[in-house]
Write a structure and sequence with these properties.
Oxid_FAD_bind_N; Alpha-Beta Plaits; binds flavin-adenine dinucleotide; FAD-bd_PCMH; 5-stranded antiparallel β-sheet; about 450 residues; FAD-bd_PCMH-like_sf; 4-stranded mixed β-sheet; Uridine Diphospho-n-acetylenolpyruvylglucosamine Reductase, domain 3; D-lactate dehydrogenase (cytochrome) activity; FAD-binding PCMH-type domain-containing protein; about 25% helix
């Protein structure tokens, strides 16, 4: 099988490069991979950052490894065995009519299971279901020099732990056995609860976390006066009564292509978009009955959304602030917003619970996400926010933010050195590498 040169973009358009690409369609092909090359697995290629390509690596597209291999729907803990290139969409179409789901789902249906494991992703229900690791029972991993290895919590445990959130650097996840969860219906009752600022939002989320199945917020960071950060919490619970089948489970591909477009977001349109979105949701539609698919994947049909950022794309900031530091953090964070007035198009928060290890974006606290215009004028804000995060023990998400450097990550993640050393011990030749791992010196 021949490799082909291809132009790759990160979703945020902050990194692009030409690299070799190949899309194997059978296991025997993997076994024939030359041992002296560098590789990096690629799922749907939807990462915000350059995690599944690199100019010195061959990108291995896994989209043809997309079959369901075994399914055990009965019993307390239903399970499924899938090839890792399968999309969340394909799994949803199979599982949902049977009253089942993958318990942790990130926000786009095109995303692959391999990508979910490699970034240990989270959904809108993180506080209830944890990270993707919580539903992975077993992985089959291929390494060009080591062949196929099975790993789980009982077998090759160090490798299992390194592969979850391991950014594809331990090998190609070929298959995974996943734990599933039953759902009472494919419909959610969604309430939109307004809040006046970030402190208020945290209280609302904490209260709602007792009963909601899913929680996230919309935050308006465009007015720098009293209502800075105001917005509403989406508090969703599965409907117990409504069992009508779900409709319109479709999506449009988010694959990035070259563009010459200018951004539609600017100083006039950003505040207008935020005000309109807030008003529409809190005044006109404070309650909605929503299909599960549409709630989970709100921009599934809106492939144009990221194009509105134009050819320069955007900078995604996503940080996890420890609960114990939340109040002082919010004060300092708001002071930075007022000082630098960055152009934030879209803001959102999630409520997290869990433990941090390796380079996983995990812990207990609040996750603040922002899509920021990539203007040079916003650089002062980013630098000051990096400093604040290091000072307050917050961590930036490596999977989302193309700006992060090795020094920043080494300062924020206590196990940076341990993760790097374990990788080197497992694979001294570091045969799996991406533009991201090169940048982080992994
Ligand atoms: C609209 C949108 C919403 C999102 N929402 C969320 C969210 O709510 N929560 C969240 O956590 N993330 C979210 N993400 C980020 C996304 O979940 C991750 O970036 C995910 O890794 C993308 O999966 P992918 O299949 O596109 O993988 P790719 O982008 O192709 O690869 C991502 C990483 O996974 C590795 N990888 C992929 N397949 C394999 C494999 N078979 N074996 C080994 N390694 C592999 C790659 O090497 C790379 O390091 C969102 C992304 C988008 C575009």
């Amino acid at each position: 099988m021949q490799t082909a040169k291809r132009l790759f973009f990160s979703l945020d358009r902050q990194t692009e490069c030409v690299a070799d690409y190949i899309e194997p369609d059978r296991y025997s092909f993997l076994e024939q991979l030359p041992e002296n090359e560098r590789y990096i697995p690629r799922g749907a290629g939807l990462s915000y950052v350059a995690a599944s390509f690199g100019s010195k690596s061959i990108s291995l597209g896994l989209s043809k490894f997309n079959r369901i291999l075994a399914f055990e729907p009965s019993g307390e803990e239903p399970t499924i065995v899938v090839e890792a290139g399968i999309s969340l969409h394909k799994l949803h179409l199979f599982l949902c009519p049977q009253g089942l789901r993958v318990p942790v789902e990130p926000g786009h249906p095109q995303i692959s299971i391999g990508g979910c494991i490699a970034f240990n992703v989270f959904g809108k229900n993180q506080f209830r279901e944890g990270f993707f690791e919580s539903c992975v029972e077993e992985i089959e991993l291929f390494h060009p020099q080591k062949g196929l290895l099975t790993c789980s919590r009982n077998e090759n445990t160090t490798l299992f732990e390194l592969t979850i959130g391991g950014m594809g650097l331990t090998g190609v996840i070929v298959k995974a056995k996943l734990r599933l969860k039953r759902i009472p219906s494919p419909w959610l009752n969604v309430q939109k609860i307004p809040f006046t600022d970030l402190h208020h939002m945290f209280q609302v989320m904490k209260n709602e976390s007792q009963t909601a199945d899913s929680l996230h917020s919309f935050n308006d960071f465009t007015s720098f006066g009293k209502g800075l950060g105001r917005g509403f919490v989406y508090a969703a619970a599965f409907s117990e009564e409504d069992t009508a089948p779900e409709l319109l489970m479709t999506f449009k591909s988010l694959e990035r292509k070259p563009t010459r477009r200018f951004a539609l977001f600017n100083r006039l349109t950003i505040p207008a978009f935020n005000a309109a979105y807030r008003t529409l949701n809190t005044r006109l539609k404070p309650y909605e009955r929503m299909p599960f698919y549409r709630f989970n994947y709100p921009i599934a049909e809106m492939s144009f959304y990221f194009d509105w950022y134009g050819r320069k794309g955007f900078v995604e900031r996503q940080m996890l602030v420890p609960e114990a530091k939340l109040d002082p953090y919010i004060e300092k964070f708001e002071a930075l917003l007022r000082k630098y007035r960055p152009q934030i198009v879209f803001g959102s928060c999630k409520f997290f619970s869990g433990k941090q290890c390796h380079l996983r974006f995990a812990g207990t606290g609040i996750v603040i996400s922002m899509e920021v215009m990539p203007n040079a004028a916003n650089q002062g804000f980013h630098d000051a926010l990096d400093e604040l995060n290091v000072h307050m023990g917050a961590i930036d998400n490596i999977a989302k933010d193309s700006r992060v450097t090795k020094d920043l990550i080494a300062s924020e993640y206590p196990e940076y050195g341990k993760f790097r050393d374990l990788l080197a011990e497992y694979d001294p030749h570091r045969q799996l590498a991406s533009a991201l791992s090169d940048k982080l010196c992994l």
